[in-house]
Amino acid sequence: MSESPNADAADPAATLALTGERTVPGIPEENYWFRRHEVAYEYIADLVDGKDVLEAGSGEGYGADLLSRRARSVVCVDYDQSAVEHTRARYPQLVVHQGNLIDLPIADESVDVIVNFQVIEHLWDQPAFVAECHRVLRPGGRLLMSTPNRITFTPGSDTPVNPFHTRELNAMELTELLVDGDGSGRAFTVEQMLGVHHGPRLLELDAKWDGSIIDAQIQRALADEPWPAALAADVAGVTTADFDIRPGDVDASLDLFAIAVRK
Question: Which of 57, 114, 219, 230 is the most buried (most CB within 10 A)?
Answer without folding.
Answer: 114
